[in-house]
Design a protein that fits this description.
Layout (H helix, E strand, L loop, with lengths): L1 H48 L6 H27 L4 H48 L1 H88 L47 H24 L15 H11 L7 H10 L4 H5 L8 H16 L2 H13 L9 H17 L12 H8 L4 H18 L4 H15 L6 H9 L2
Helix pairs in contact: 1-2, 1-3, 2-3, 4-5, 7-9, 10-11, 11-14
Length: 489
């Protein structure tokens, strides 16, 4: 039993030894692989550097590092090869190592050749640069003249380009002017044709009126009996009236009862006066239409979704487009054409409805969205509060601001929501838009108004700003008018 236990112990110790050896071989193999990977990585970096001769000094330093890595790879291989016991595996490893070593040597050879060629090329470049530097002095004056000539050519080219650009702009302006002239001539031609047509229609209407009057006169003459004596009975003695004391009331004949007596006649109508009255009426109509045609055409501005401009737009549309449209279909089409942006998108679905319902729905949608009194009031107030502060020397900006304040004051008469402008915080916000010198003047005026009538309102502020804006833009005695007069020679 003692011998068997010794044999078993020897077997266990041999197994442990084999595991240790295998682990060591594996470690050495990994070290060899890592060394080879380092060599390969360095080769790739050197290969990228060899694309440019300017990297010559870098390549030389990399050669030294690559040789050290190669030596480290040989050492790791020798350590690994010593521990191999299998002859076939050893042969395989030796063969692979020989191939890797040969590849590294070839690359080092190529690298050394590249270093030599690069040195020769750099030397040639230096020689060429030295020759060029020696001739620089001789060619300096010529280069200066060439540079001057180039600058002149560039200036000439810039001038030609500017002339070309101006010629193109002039051409565009001439085309626009020609197009406007043609449109104006076409408009005048259409107006002339309309005028001629109106005169012709007036003559036709006058002729028809005369014809109707004469026809009525003929009808009346047919009703009125001819002034001819009635046949008498020859067998009857002539009537001799006898005086009598009895008076008999003779009944009056009615106008609508026909009478066959020669003494009963209807008054003929005054045909000339009727004809003259109708002619005067047609002449007045013709003069009114002719005067309307001679007036400049009124363009209805397009509505872009500003609630402040909605009432003006609808008034213009109802005055200039709606009365002349033949039906709801035309009204809906023209209404869509006069809209832009969100307003146009708002009624887009109404175009797919019937003409009557679509036009009614489109106007209703626009009124709800842009004609609501609260929304209109908020648009006025928002624009007023967001107005930029006025500068000290800006009379035109002050006048524009004053006009908008007047517009707000007029809107307050129909928009009750804008009464909030009379509140103190809103008045203060408006005063802050004014220049400092006007703020001080308003402060003095506000104190006087409070003593006089117990407070101030938005109308007082509007009147103050408008008065100061007119004074700042006075064409005779304002600051800018006097300065312009002084500046004249």
């Amino acid at each position: 039993m003692q011998e068997s236990s010794e044999v078993a112990g020897s077997i266990v110790s041999e197994d442990c030894l084999d595991e240790v050896i295998q682990e060591q071989i594996k470690t050495l193999k990994n070290a060899q692989t890592a060394a080879l990977s380092a060599v390969t990585k360095r080769r790739n970096e050197i290969f990228r550097l060899m694309d440019n001769c300017d990297n010559l000094h870098l390549v030389k330093s990399e050669v030294i590092i690559l040789c050290k890595l190669r030596d480290k790879y040989d050492e790791s291989f020798q350590q690994y090869e010593k521990h191999l016991t299998d002859s076939s595996e050893r042969n395989t490893v030796n063969k692979r190592h020989s191939e890797n070593t040969a590849s590294i040597d070839r690359f080092i050879t190529e690298m050394n050749n590249w270093v030599k060629e690069s040195e020769l090329q750099l030397t040639a470049d230096l020689d060429r640069k030295s020759l060029c530097s020696s001739s620089t002095t001789r060619t300096k004056s010529s280069r200066t003249s060439v540079r001057s000539a180039r600058l002149k050519e560039k200036a000439r080219l810039a001038e030609l380009m500017a002339q070309h650009a101006m010629r193109e702009k002039t051409k565009v302006m001439e085309e626009q002017e020609l197009r406007l002239k043609q449109e104006r001539e076409e408009q005048e031609f259409r107006l002339r044709k309309k005028k001629e047509q109106l005169e012709l229609e007036t003559k036709i209407a006058m002729s028809q009126a005369r014809e109707r009057v004469y026809a009525e006169a003929d009808n009346i003459s047919d009703i009125v009996p001819k002034d001819t004596p009635s046949p008498l009975n020859p067998n009857v003695d002539p009537f001799q009236p006898q005086p009598s004391d009895i008076t008999v009331d003779t009944p009056q004949l009615k106008a609508n009862v026909p009478c066959s007596s020669s003494h009963c006649r209807f008054p003929e109508p005054n045909l000339d006066m009727q004809l003259q009255s109708q002619q005067e009426m047609f002449l007045k109509t013709q003069q009114h239409m002719t005067a309307a045609m001679l007036l400049p055409s009124i363009e209805v501005p397009k509505f872009k979704g500003d609630p402040i401009e909605f009432a003006t737009f609808m008034m213009a549309f109802d005055a200039r487009i709606a009365p002349n449209a033949s039906g709801d279909a035309d009204k809906l089409y023209y209404l869509d054409q006069q809209l832009e942006g969100e307003a146009k998108d708002l009624i887009g679905g109404c175009l797919y409805m019937s003409s009557s319902e679509g036009y009614t729905s489109a106007r209703s949608l626009l009124s709800q969205e842009y004609g609501d009194p609260y929304k209109v009031s908020m648009a006025y107030i928002k624009k007023l509060i967001s107005w930029s502060a006025l500068k000290h020397e800006d009379p035109h900006g002050l006048y524009t601001f004053a006009l908008f304040l007047i517009k707000c004051r007029h809107a307050m008469t129909n928009l009750s929501h804008m009464e909030v402008l009379n509140h103190l915080p809103n008045l203060q916000a408006v005063v802050k838009k004014l220049p400092t010198y006007l703020q001080n003047k308003w402060c003095s005026l506000a104190g006087h108004l409070r003593e006089e009538k117990g407070g101030v309102d938005f109308a007082d502020l509007v009147e103050f700003v408008y008065r100061k804006a007119k004074a700042a833009n006075d064409p005779t005695f304002s600051k800018f008018a006097l300065q312009n007069n002084y500046s004249k020679p």
